[in-house]
Every structure is written in structure tokens, then in C-alpha cells.
Amino acid sequence: MKKAMEALERLLGLGGIKKDAVLLVLSGAAVLCSLFGVQPFPFDIAWAAIVLCGVPIVLEAIIGLVTAFDIKADVLVSLALLASIAIGEYFAAGEVAVIMQLGALLEELTVAKARAGIERLVRLTPQTARVVTDAGERIIPAEQVAVGDVLRVLPGETVPADGVILSGRTSVNQAVMTGESLPVDKEPGDEVSSGTINQFGAFTLRASRVGEDSSIQRMIRLVQSADAGKAKIVGLADRWATWIVVAALAAAAVTWLVSGEILRAVTILVVFCPCALVLATPTAVMAAIGNAAKRGFLVREGDALERLAAARLVCFDKTGTLTHGEPKVVEVKSALSGLPDGELLRLTASAEQLSEHPLGKAIAESCRAEGAPLSPAAGFRMLPGLGVSASIDGKRVLAGNARLLEQEGVRFSPPDEASACLGRGCTVTYAAVDGMFAGFLALSDTVRAESAGTIAALSALKARPVLLTGDNENAARAIAGELGVSEVRAGCLPEDKMDFIAARQDGGEPVCMIGDGVNDAPALKLSHVGIAMGGVGSDVAVEAADIALVNDDLRGLPHLIALSRRMMTTIKVNMSFSMGLNFLAIALAIAGVLGPVAGALVHNAGSVLVIANSALLLGWKRRK
What we know:
Strand content: 15-25%
Radius of gyration: 32 Å
Largest sheet: 7 strands, mixed
Strand order of the largest sheet: 10-22-21-20-11-18-19
Number of strands: 22
């Protein structure tokens, strides 16, 4: 039979879901023909459904029983099939096979595509390294780097190993590890991690952790271990299968012994077949997934909504999730009389317009957004780890950190307003004009317009928000205060986020994690359910998550959580109805009122009603 099925697949050129859909259509047509007496062959056409859909179920049940004594719903289905065939009720057998095929197809449609998140993460691993030796500089495979080797990293290259900078100043994009929106200035003595990106100046480092001990490899192992440790929800029909099988066999045996009628016993097995129970969950899940899709959510795991309904703790990454992930000028303060704040912004932006640093680009863009014209930057110099220097309209302008101004001989002390901005988590750029301290510009990541409303709506749903971020404490507290989030964990590395989530889940609090960066991938994997920002988020985060928010609009998140809870209510109603109908049909079968065909039609009607009830989820809306 297995070879015959493989031959059919080769003939049709199909596999997986497409194959199951074709089998369902062919079998469904055969069952309908049998029901209405259309018999083009010398044998009952319902045999087509029995062979195409029923035989694989029976084989799977036998294999599970023999190899692992694994009693699932397919065991009872097989009993109903075989009993119906034994007494010549082929329509009843075919109808049971078709309904089970429908349930299996719906479950397959809810299963996510094969994920490639770990492979994407592996591609972030540096492939080569520049080793500096007495004989000169040579390029070797990154896996050959040894502890103690001196490495040179050029602008734009990925750091090949963890280590400490020996010489050179630069800015490093650490988003892959911490999720920070801004690059971090580095100088001799500072540590750098493998997988991060050197943005500007060249530097040398001494390798301290290499190969499997490096930061990027630890990240890969975290994602793998989190995926392996996440439990999958087992279908209710399978969880109850052992008891259902025992009850069905006992009822059938007692009825046969008392009445002496084998037909009644077979009818009991047919109506005991948990078709509506099997359909109760996948039909509701499919309808809920369709509803979520209309709100911009791509549900990648079949049981994700089922898990989301249980979540009572919602953990947010900050940068790129609750905020836009792009710095903007939020305050300008001139320190020179006769130099307005707007002119200070224009001069600084003109000096920064050729900079490749994200802060410089943000300053220039903020000035353009206000409609102020930028002047040409003559004699532009980029000073890695410090800032920029240029001549603007005949004035020498410096823009950068405090070390730049001190190095250029500008005498100043940071004003109180600048210190206050730093206390709120802003990044401050100081400016000097013709050797005199001219003032400062404060830049900050800006909160998404919908974030505050989303947090408030989640709190109303009794889903407690928590902020988990790699950013510094001041920036995290400032954003949390603005949004009304009381629980904050700042300075988190990927393993810190995992530890927090694991501790809460071990304590009985299922966690929903929402993030966008590579550094969020392990937490997204480990959490009870992970939601990734699909638009701004990295491919690795999206692949690690159970659900992707395609349009990055957080306003739909409260609807999604409420929808998941409504879905669970629908599933419970479906199951209660299907079990109640089954018990009623069993009582009628024991009394001899129902025969096998009538019994098959009764639980077929139950399956239709379950599907109809689930379909109501497609148009469901949350009450605000």
C-alpha cells in the first residue's frame, strides 16, 4: 500500500498538503456518489475513500500500537472503519475516512513552513579574519583564529572573534548582540564581540574567545536549545484517546452481549468515532488565523494562538519594537549669545551631512525636515570615535563627543541641561564654533505613536507588560515611564532575556515575547509564544518567532490576544457540543434507533455544525 501511495504521488506530481487536498477531493466525491446511489463500478465507490484516506489511518494506528503502544484518536477511527467494512457498511467507513482526512488537512495547513532561522544566524558568523604577525598581515578562515592572536578589523567588516581593542578608535554596531539602535564608540581597552560590525575606523584586537566560545556561536546554541526545549501542545482528541477507546470498546461489547446484535455494536463504534472532536480545534484555529491575517499577523505555528491565550506576561524589546529604532534630534540648546538654537542645528547639520555615522545622519535629516538649507562642508574630516570637523560658511565647526572638544582645545563643562538629557537616556552631541563651545544637540530614539495605547489595552486584558532591552538603564526607564510600563530590565544580553523568561515560565507565568532583532531570537524561541516585527525585524527574529507582525503596527496586538482567548472559548464549546452529540448518538445506538449509516450521518452533521461555529471567528472583533 505504501508503494501504491508513493506511485500515486509521483503520478500526480504532488506531495504534502497538495497531495492530501487531492485525496480529500477524490474521496469526498466518492462518498457523495455512494450516498446518492451513483455506482459506476461493480463495487461500492465508497471503497475509493476507504483506500485513499482510510488505509493510511489504519496503518498509522497499527504502527503506533506495535512500536510504542501509542493510543491516539486514529485507533478508534480504525476500529470504526474496520467494523463498518466487516458488516458491509462501506458508506459509513468512507465517510469516517473523509472527515478524518479533512481534520488532518486542516492541521497541516496550520503547521508552519520549515524554519531556516538557525541557518540565517549561522550566515552572520564571520568567515575570515585578518591576523597580524611579525611577517605581516594575512587572511585566514575565522575558525582558525586562536586565543591571543592579534587581528585587524577594517571599516565595514564583521568582528571575527571576541577580544579587547589594542589600538584604534571606532564605532561598532552591536545590534546583533544587544539590539542597541546606535553604534557604540570603542577605544583601546574596550571589549568587542564576534558578529558585530565595525562601522568606521580600523582597529586591532587581541582575541580572547574564539570558535565555539565566541558570542555569535553562543547565540546560535541559545536559539537551538530554546527551540528544543519548547513543548508542543498535543491535540485534545489524542490526549483523551486511551479513555475514548476503552469506553467505546466496552460499550460496544456490552451492547453486543446484552442485545446479541452485532449491528448495534458497530453503530456504537461509528458514532463514538471522534470526528467532530478532532475537527473542534483545527477548524477554530484556521478561522482565527484567517482573522489574524486580516490584521497583519502571519501565524507561523499552528498552536501559537492556543499558547498565546495562556500568556499573562507580555515582554517587549525596546528598540525597533516600542520605538522606531532611529535616532532623532529632540532638543537643541545654544550656549552662545547671538547664535539661535536653529542656527546651531543648521551649522552642526551642515558639518555632519557627509558623515556616515547614524547620529550625524540623524542630525542632518532633522535639519532638512525643518526646511533649513545646509551649507557646503569644506575640509570635512571624520574622526572615528570622536566626531567630525568641517568649515561651514567660513566658520570652523566641531561636532561630536566631549573628548573631541577637549582634544581640540575647546574649554567647556557640560551644561546641566545636557546632563539632564543624558539622565533621560538621550545621546548628546556637543558642538564648537571657531574654538568656542557653542552648545549641544540631544538625540533619542522616538516612541511609536501606537505604543502607549497598546500597553494600556494589554493592561486592560490582564496581560502585564515588561520591558526587556539591551539599552542602558536611563534610556530604558525613560521609555518605560512614557509608556506606563512598571517592570523594566535594562542592559540585557540575549542570555539575560532568556534567563528572565525561563524564570517566569518556571514560576507558572507563560510569557509572550515581542521583538525585532537578532539578539531577540533566543528569547522569541524560548518564550511560550514569540511575536516578531516582520517589517523592521531581522530575518532571524522572524524565523525564530511563532507569529510575525507584517506591518509593524502594534495596535492589533490587543485584538490578537483577545482573539486567541475567544478561539479557546470556541474550541471548548465545539468539544462540549461534539461530546454531547456523541453521547446522545451512543444512547440511540444502544437502543437500536440508529444504524451505522444513520449514525455516520449524525456525527457528520455534528462535524458540519462544529465547522460552522468555528467559521464565526473569521469576522470576530474585539469589544473596546
